[in-house]
Amino acid sequence: MVEDLQTDWYDSSFLSCLGCRVLVVGAGGIGCELLKNLVLTGFTNIDIIDLDTIDVSNLNRQFLFRREHVGKPKVEVAVDAVKAVAPEAKVLAHHDSVLSSKYDVDFFQQFTVVLSALDNREARIHVNRLCLAARVPLIESGSSGYLGQVNVIVRDQTECYECLPKSEQKSYPGCTIRNTPSEPIHCIVWAKHLFNQLFGQPDAEDEVSPDMNDEENKYHFAAEETVESGLENRNYQANGDHYFATDNSYALCTSESTRQWAENNNFDPVLLFTKFFHDDILYLLSMSNLWRERRKPTPLIWDSLPDQNPSASRSKSANDLWTVLDCRQQFEDALNILGKRVRDGSVLVWDKDDDAALRFVTACANIRAHAFHIPMKSLFDIKSMAGNIIPAIATTNAIVAGMIVIEALKVVFDRLPALRNIFITRLPNPRGKVLVDQVPNKPNPNCYVCSNRREIVLKTNVNLTTVNALEIKFLKTVLHMVAPDVIISGTGVLVISSEQGETNAVGELTLENVGIINGCVLECDDFLQKLELRIRIVESNQLKSDEFDIVNDSAQMDQESEEKAVKRASNLYAEDLLAKRVRNTIGDQN
Fold it and tell me: Is residue 187 flagged as an active site residue?
């Protein structure tokens, strides 16, 4: 195919430049288009990394895959497909996670340019840092429905991926989810929590039933409330940690989890329905203060559901609304399927592409929405909202992939001043453009990843927060470090190590107990990402255990307080900490 192109510029000299080594990260919607574009353009030395396998839901937009490929690694199938088009190309598949330690700075330095077709933030941040450390240009990309963008990242010349803050996933107060939902998304979040309580890894903060331990919820039902709520035929006890509906054969208390109770009752759909959509709502109705300015919810009865919905249709496509009776049937069917999967004690993870899991969440969200007089949603809408995604559009992915190759060619031919960020808009701008280009911004001087600043100020409660929390919840979760080493500046005391087991002895100690106090500076080094960072600690008694708050302006800190903190940490804590580490080492040797 390449030989058929007869142009003055597309000659042997041009093609020889395309023999440079290129890395593609991601073989999904954009990645498939990108890999195809690269080999058709003439690139002949390509590596591609992806961990995923092919799911049936990928087939409508990831065109290199067919039904017979379902379950196979994406990279392997994609490479086989493009080799059929360009057999002369050397395309190497890596069925692996780009987060693996084998893909380090040395690995990235082998490439002329890295092309990112990733779909999650953690991996994007990791690739961004490795490309900066390796000084290899990175072309970042993404799409969201009709919108798409391509960003070029060159060390010391452009903004990096982390120069600008990214919007965080929106969270909702637990009391709103459990007690007073007012929007469809509240019901969807509640349904996902219910899935985790029944089949997944439960989180105490994601409990779906009213909080019986909340002091505001503990009281005896007034007679008028009992009559108004329809409780006159039920025998309730609301006392401390216990809550019983004695004529419904279930009991929930602190000693029994929701899953244990469901398993003990063989995941009985009628019993579960009655508990979550009738009895829990009756309990909520007893909290009269909740409903002074809100419309009261309606407890639902298994045998008395309406088989109609003003917006429902007779067809049952993903875009159609179900009736409440449809939801009950879907709830029962999905519950039977999911219940069988966890008979052996398995733990499920909710996946929008798991049909039974999706139908369970859709049914539960809509039943709860009906009870709280909230508009119901179609399966398609709930899949989008519950998965925190906007459905992908193949055409947008194709445009993004084309723009990536255009910018990659500029890198290969050393035309860096011509690099542009590209934005794909849904509607033409005033100049009639759908593709809008922009000269990349300069690096953000306050970016702790690519600037010379490399320092952040961190507020935390050093009396309550543990070393393990600092490592897992802040360094690895918030800062997305992979293998951090942390020492207290001025003392040389190592409190967090990338070597497994080296600092286990101090993991459960509070920060104060290991010498991390107000004004203290931590020297953090992630050897895998080649990222060095100083963290200046500010004590905050207003924060709870394991809570962190980043303060942007480090200039506000007093240098003298740092020196005092270092001295105090050295005198009061360092010797004790080192002694504990020695004892731990001896114990390991024994």
Answer: no
